[in-house]
Structure formats: C-alpha cells, structure tokens
Amino acid sequence: MIRYKVTLAYDGTLFSGFERQPDRRTIEGVLTQKVNIMAKNPDPAIVVYGSGRTDAGVHALGQVVHFDFPFDLPTKAIYRGLNSLLPLDMEIKKAEKVSDTFHARYDVSGKRYVYRLDLGEFKDPFKRNYTGNWRFPIDIERVQTAMKDFIGEHDFSSFVASGSTARSNIRTIYEATAYLDKEANEIRLEFYGNGFLYNMVRIMVGVVVEIGSQMRPEHDILRLYDVKDRDQARRTMPASGLYLKKVYYEGEDPQHPTKIPKHQR
Amino acid sequence: MIRYKVTLAYDGTLFSGFERQPDRRTIEGVLTQKVNIMAKNPDPAIVVYGSGRTDAGVHALGQVVHFDFPFDLPTKAIYRGLNSLLPLDMEIKKAEKVSDTFHARYDVSGKRYVYRLDLGEFKDPFKRNYTGNWRFPIDIERVQTAMKDFIGEHDFSSFVASGSTARSNIRTIYEATAYLDKEANEIRLEFYGNGFLYNMVRIMVGVVVEIGSQMRPEHDILRLYDVKDRDQARRTMPASGLYLKKVYYEGEDPQHPTKIPKHQR
C-alpha cells in the first residue's frame, strides 16, 4: 500500500460539510467514493482521512487528506485521475507520496483560515455563497486592534459552539489580521493558529465585527477569555464566508513546527 | 404612471435565462412578480421591458429594464423595496425616473459584454459557474491581434446561432480587447458594439481562442465574414463565462451616440 497526501479545494455551497453521512453529499463521502473507483473498488474499501471537518457551506482552498492506495501510481496519475472523476465543485490541487507514518489529522501543526466579509448594503448576487455580510458602519482600525487580542495562547471557551468534543479549549493563535479591500468592498480576516474549535472562527469574526461597529468595547475579547461563557459571544457568522486556506504539518513552518499536544486536541 | 429605469445584476446560474416562460425561473419572471407585489398587484399587471434577453447561465453586471409604476415613489424606495423582495442572486444596482418615451429595448445604442476564460487544466471549483474554460496552450498576443479584426462594421452571419430573429446580421463593434490576468490564470475578453446577435459573443470567443491556440490562421475572422457560414465557426463557448456588463442608451456615449437602425435590429 502506498500512502498519498492530497491537497484539495472545494466550493462548500452544495455539500453537507466534510464528514461522511448516509444519504448526504459530503466532501469525505464523494472523495472516498472516487478514490475507491480509481482503485477498482477494493475490499475492504479505502478509507480517506481528513485534517479535520469543515461545516456545511464552508469552503476550502487547501484541505488535506491521506489514504492508502493499493497501486504505486505516480503522483501525477493520482492528481489527474481523481480530478477527472470528481465533480466540478471539488479540485485536487496536489498529490504527494508520504511515509506510512504520516497522518492527515494527527500530524497537523496548524491551520490557516480566511473569512471574507462583504460590506454591501445588499448582498452582491455573485458573493452570496462566498462571503458573509455585514451592513453596519465598521471601523477597520478598530477591527485591526481587536484582532491583535487573539494572538497568543488563550482559553477560547467563550468562542466554541456547543457540540464541541475537544478535550481542552486552550489554543494558540500565531497570526490574526484584517485587511480592507476597498475595491471589493470587503474585509478579509485571516487567522493562523495551532488549532481551532467547533465554529471558533465564525464566532471570533462575529465578535470583532461587533467591536468594529462600536457594539462592544475595543478590548472585549480579553473580557470574553475571562468569563468563559459562549452566550456572551452571541453571533456565529455565516459559513459562506469561511475558507480553510492551508493546513500545516509538523516541521513545515519553522517558526511553529510542533503539533498540538494530544490532550488538547 | 411613473416610468422607472432600473439597472440590475444577476448570477445567471440558477435562471432559465431572461425571458419569461411558464413554470421556469427567469429574470423577467421574478422581476415582474416582485414589481407587481410592490405595487400591490394592480390589474392589469405591470409589464417589465428588458434591454434584451440573456441566455440560461449568462450573468449580468448591468442589465437594464423599464416599467411603469402606479405610484410616484422616490428612486431610493424603488431601489430598497425591490432589493428587499428579490432573491439573493439578483440585485438592483440603480433606479432612475425617466420620461415616458424612454424604452429599455428600443433606445439601446450599444452593449458591452465581458467573457471570463479560465485557463486551468481542471476547472477551479469556485469558477465553474463564473467562467468558461480553455485547456489548450494559448498565445495572448495572437488573441489580441485576432480581436482587432472584430472592430468595425461587419456581416456577422458566420457568428450567429440558428434561431436568431434579427432582420440583419450587420453589426458594428467599437471595441474588442483581450487581457491576460496572470494571477487569476484567466483571459478577459471585452466587446462593445451597437448590438449583438443570438449567441454572437460566445461564438466570437470560440473563434478567437482557436486562433490563439493555433487551430486557425491569425486572420481567419476576415475569411469568416466572407463565407457567411455558421458551421465554420463551430464552437459556442459556455454561457457561464459571459457577463452583460453595460447597456448604453442614445446619447450616453458621446463617441457612439445613436441607436441601431430599426431595420437592422
């Protein structure tokens, strides 16, 4: 068996999220089906392991999965073969051979997410599935100041949706930036950290836009760390604006090389 | 009755084109329904007149319609009211009051279309509904040279799909440009002329990409004008790449002020 690491992009609009579910169109479900077709449907079937889930409607520019394939094919054959079989809203970006100790989920050392926030009064018809929307006047400098409060190791208990199965809510954020694209009338928020809890980015964005629109004090994030109360963060921004941009593995980023300790995952 | 001129954008993906049809979701159908709801469903119903049709899957950044409304509302009320009623894949960009001699179709002096051509080996999942795709090596300078052959008054009989009801196939193209966006890995083709025949832009793009990829001689467009034979233009590029960008009315463009003569429409 040869282990392949595959990087893929998808438009999450028409998927019920990443995780396989009966009778639902999911990323894992479609990918598993196509990988098995390519391998002539072996028994037992090939299992596809993702770096983690994305919710319904969330997009990916660089999701990562691994699987063990029965034939030693060149990476180009995996790349082309899967792309030919996959539907148009999924695309393989890269296929690599990896050692059979590599694990797409357990070896993650970090993830990078982008959130696209459209500021139009009415939702642009070309952006409805690809951005979240915020109609209130917003001060980009206030947003940028607030984003800095995310950097570092914090207890994100106020920023996790119910249903999370994580052992710990402690996560470290390495980068958190906000950029106003005037031409597109959008704010792009980018987050890079060692791990993210269930709905965490969408809740973080909900808090920073409220700070940017004077609905919360400038450093309310510091207070939210203390209170550890999800109800005080209120807003979960729409899935349509969220993109999993990149998954980092042990050693890939020399500044932040190590994976998250198992007891925190 | 007050006549309003309304400029709108739409994502054509989920519409069966512009023209009203029973049991189909069309731009004209949805818009007519919402305008009549806003006017409290008068009898006879308000009729919406478009600048012309767009096909199923074709998008608009600046389609124009007019209608006569029973109440004298401020343009801002028309703008906001319609935007609140319309589905998320349509958006009113502008509402204006016009004289009751203005006609959205008969007073058109020109139209501007853009075609987005993705050059990726596999179709980008975020572009599948928003670009056409061309996988062959293509020389942008050859494309640009070919585009110049469109400029001027020509007989476009080789560039019209069967089913056209136009009285004449003579049209004048004022501008025809091609631009390679390396970062997006796309060619953007832009056409501005006094009128376009059925499927004409998509057929024109099919010919220039074949020229750009050495499948036709550099000035094959000149030969196609002469032969007046649609079969020789072959390819109609996908609707998903085409955008109606702007509709011009008499006098709006000082360089090309007059509308197309009625016998040519």
UniProtKB/TrEMBL annotation, chains A, B:
InterPro entries xref list: PsdUridine_synth_cat_dom_sf (IPR020103), PsdUridine_synth_TruA (IPR001406), PsdUridine_synth_TruA_a/b_dom (IPR020097), PsdUridine_synth_TruA_C (IPR020095), TruA/RsuA/RluB/E/F_N (IPR020094)
GO molecular function: RNA binding; tRNA pseudouridine(38-40) synthase activity
CDD domains given in the database record: PseudoU_synth_EcTruA (cd02570)
Catalytic activity, EC: 5.4.99.12
GO biological process assignments: tRNA pseudouridine synthesis
Enzyme class: isomerase
Reaction catalysis annotation: uridine(38/39/40) in tRNA = pseudouridine(38/39/40) in tRNA
Any single Pfam family the record assigns to this protein: PseudoU_synth_1
Active site: 55
Domain of life: Bacteria
Binding-site positions, substrate: 113
Record keywords, A-Z: Isomerase, tRNA processing
Similarity field: Belongs to the tRNA pseudouridine synthase TruA family.
Subunit-level organization: Homodimer.
PANTHER family: PSEUDOURIDYLATE SYNTHASE, TRNA PSEUDOURIDINE SYNTHASE-LIKE 1
UniProt xrefs under NCBIfam families: hisT_truA (TIGR00071)
Function: Formation of pseudouridine at positions 38, 39 and 40 in the anticodon stem and loop of transfer RNAs.
Name used for this protein in its record: tRNA pseudouridine synthase A
Source taxonomy: Bacteria, Bacillati, Bacillota, Bacilli, Lactobacillales
Gene: truA
